[in-house]
Amino acid sequence: MIKQAMERRGLIDALLAGDGFADIVLRGGQVVNTLTREIYPADVAIKGSRILMAGDARELVGPDTTVVDVEGMTISPGFIDSHMHFESSMLTVTEFSRLSIPSGTTTLIADPHEIGNALGPAGMKAMADEAGQVPNHVRLVVPALVPDCPALETAGADVSSGDMEDLLGYPNIVGIGELQGFSLARHVYQNTPEIVTDLVASTTYASSTGRVVDGNAPGLSGAELAAHIIAAGGRTSCHETTTKAECMEKLRQGVHVFMREGSTQKNMAECVRAVTEEGMDSRRCILATDDMLAGDLKTLGHMNEIIRRTIRQGVAPAEAIQMATSNPAAYFGLRDRGAIVPGAAADLAIISDLEEMRVEAVFLAGRLAAYRGELLLRLPPYRYPEEVRHSVKRGAVREEELAIHASGAEAVGRCIVAIPDQNLTETREVPLRVSRGQVQCDVSRDVLYMAVVERYGRRGGIGKCFVSGLGIQNGAIAESVAHDTHNIVAAGSSLRDLTAAVNRVIELGGGLAVARDGRILGELRLPVGGLITDELTGEEVAARMEQLERLVREQLGGTLHAPFMHLSFLALSTSPKWKLTDWGLVDVEAFRILEPVV
Amino acid sequence: MIKQAMERRGLIDALLAGDGFADIVLRGGQVVNTLTREIYPADVAIKGSRILMAGDARELVGPDTTVVDVEGMTISPGFIDSHMHFESSMLTVTEFSRLSIPSGTTTLIADPHEIGNALGPAGMKAMADEAGQVPNHVRLVVPALVPDCPALETAGADVSSGDMEDLLGYPNIVGIGELQGFSLARHVYQNTPEIVTDLVASTTYASSTGRVVDGNAPGLSGAELAAHIIAAGGRTSCHETTTKAECMEKLRQGVHVFMREGSTQKNMAECVRAVTEEGMDSRRCILATDDMLAGDLKTLGHMNEIIRRTIRQGVAPAEAIQMATSNPAAYFGLRDRGAIVPGAAADLAIISDLEEMRVEAVFLAGRLAAYRGELLLRLPPYRYPEEVRHSVKRGAVREEELAIHASGAEAVGRCIVAIPDQNLTETREVPLRVSRGQVQCDVSRDVLYMAVVERYGRRGGIGKCFVSGLGIQNGAIAESVAHDTHNIVAAGSSLRDLTAAVNRVIELGGGLAVARDGRILGELRLPVGGLITDELTGEEVAARMEQLERLVREQLGGTLHAPFMHLSFLALSTSPKWKLTDWGLVDVEAFRILEPVV
How far apart are CA A108 and CA A288, in angstroms? Predict the structure, then answer.
């Protein structure tokens, strides 16, 4: 605090002493004012890591001031991604930032609920530690409940209200993240009311101590939406709003709608119609990506690209930029971010083409951090401590353990049906042959084996069922990325390959594996929680993922464009209709476990 | 916190249990959505002190639900006055609230810097205690510095950064109020740089612990404005913005502009042109009164009247209402106020005529609190503790002490010139007759005696000069309301009357007095800090003030419509050009004391 006070005193000196000047003045550009929603000519004066002022800064130019000519450029506050998971990129905070900073994205609010499921508070604290090392502004909002459904699945550790004081007091952790465990409000209320009580205890602690509480209310409406909002403490967000009508209702109920537009889910165009068509005040409309893949960050950009798409939907540039600057800053209480005003952090995106959101240069804390897509800062690779690098705590599985048993010659198998580009699934009951007591999959009818293997050395269970929609003809894939508990999920055309793939992931200590004919064709080691690599760069991960996906497509006959991503969501116990956890096949809406055969 | 969690749990039960219902449903009205800036038909369901939801609430009507037909009415969140001083009304929080609540004003953010000058932290805490007793939501923002100019005046107690932790931790105190001591940023910086350091220490403590810090930057621009903003911690407000251009600059620099519109200063119409003419985003435009007199509260109303005038300036009703609800709620971090959303406080204004802002009924915490201007709640009179009822700590003054001395037959006296309806003054140097070593006033040229008598038993000084503009022909007035230190200020046509008036105020233990021909014609006792009465109702104070002002007009020949108000501001050492404190005549812009004769 003393440091902060001295910094402020120094800024005042620079402004009033007469012999104090700016370090840098950006001269001749246009400034995006994210508070008044204007764009107008103004200089920007910077001292140390802070904005001195935007306006006529001639008197702040001294003999040692660096004057940068930015004529023809537009200066925006650095962008904020308000809801994202580093784990989706499989990258460390550092490697993600390396790809993200050149896009002008200077603040990331990350929800570490994946690593939280794998490693509990220790994993989230390890990520918070890394967040403190990077030059961009990274803060975490942590889950109040791990696993999402304690009655239906096993995570690597449990998190509940008793952990909140410890977690929310940890450096770089600023609030509670998505309330996944109450996204099906009525079901949770009816089936596990004690969870509601515990969540409310957590959110009340968080909100009464001034912290943010994200919600997550996909599809909720009316009284159920109201209950979700109240459970979150009354001031909340949702990042899974998919229709205009849903967006309108949520904005009217005070929800900050995080209009999601990431690598996998694209909901912004639909949501933003509440603004473009209905003229609603957009102050609670916020852009977020949720999940970004390394390859997309590299080739498309990050928040600049999301803003560009928002402008394409008919939103004026200044208003679209508000959705990624001042609006989220207000929501998260980031007092010194989101606007170019005196005393704010000098995190800036210098834009050469506003409609295309082409970012020419990026300033971070008053330093030139990136120029024309190239990072200028040196970010040393971050190595995670050993204690979070060993999350797989079980021995190999045997084929027999992955088999689904039935008597007789035929059985009706329950089959999850994957839907391209959705977390939701359909369901299918299909007659299958039984041989030596084992129900056989049927590749000809796109029915594969599927398993979720508990990997934390806790309950030790294996959930089993059948799956359609992946299109695999020959072979199996397995991964320790399996939302949200991140046990090992696998699918394949034979028990032999299924077993090989699962066991390879176990040997790797977490990761992805592709098997055919009993051999491993490809793999990616994810040593940190079985979710993240701290051994590869973003470029290397992108290349490796492309290779693995090509293998699945070309060698296994897979038909989905992102087979590992889709497979990982078939374990997500909070999104309908059927999902597979280590406890077994979950009928999400009925909140119960089904047998894999009828 | 446990109580809060249980309350939330109870609301969730009412929404989801199937057999839980609303206590009250307001049916058939229009709702002002202060987040989406819309007005549309919706029911409002209330449970206990909270909003359950707004929308279709049919399913929340149970056998014990009170359904209120509000057809033809508009339901707004209760209004917020974001910057006001109870002391200006001379009323206790309780008596002020009694007059304010029926106007639909349900939240008051009060700056107790008057009582803080008179009584220091003890006085502000006493007011904070009272704030906790009233049914409306009253919170205090306290001064970081008392007196405003430690080098030029004496207050009843001193407040500085060392007091912040204690004060900001006190119940019902939520931040730092107006930074009066840095309203002349460059002057303060040049003359008392140690004050800047101390203010920054206070504001850094406040902002880094999540508290609000109001600023006050009348007339500041460019680097000086930027310095003021940074001194306030970067996120601040100003309630003394008077021109459209000033408003535009402040909004652009991120200042929350409290467009003032109270009993004395009326700046809203000018400020709001930044919105109506320039189309600026109004999210940081906020309505506030600063000073409201009891009589105006009674006859005109409170925030409803200010909103009405804002609508008259061409602002749409929903946007004008945002300026007194959701905008200030966001600024002050009032998470459960300013919008009718699930979990919010059920503080509502039911409006029968939106353009006229006629308030039919008011709900406070889910209870009907007022109907057609009549308060329905019982507010017991509040009696302040003895220790804050004795702020005048000096004996009577002698005529001789109030005299201005000079040798010779003539002297050039320095004369403050009061300007109607302004805090600013002009200056005048006028030749005056000297008799028996005393400089004589000259009623024929509107030159009166003026004095400020230190009343706290500290320095004991008496500041003296001459004054024009009050128009008094015969007699004197004195009062213990004298911004901001609230010593006893007096002006009159003879030393005899001046002395009589001052001594009557001392005898009263604080208050107002009118003297003529050595006799006291009228008076008002203000026992709490010499500023507030806890003995009279708002109606009684309004009547008494009317009587005293009539006396000044009819018996003394005074020409100003609010002589006591004007006189009290002639002591305000932070607004140019000349002011009188107990230290003497202050040349505000030069930051020095002048002799009363040249």
Answer: 10
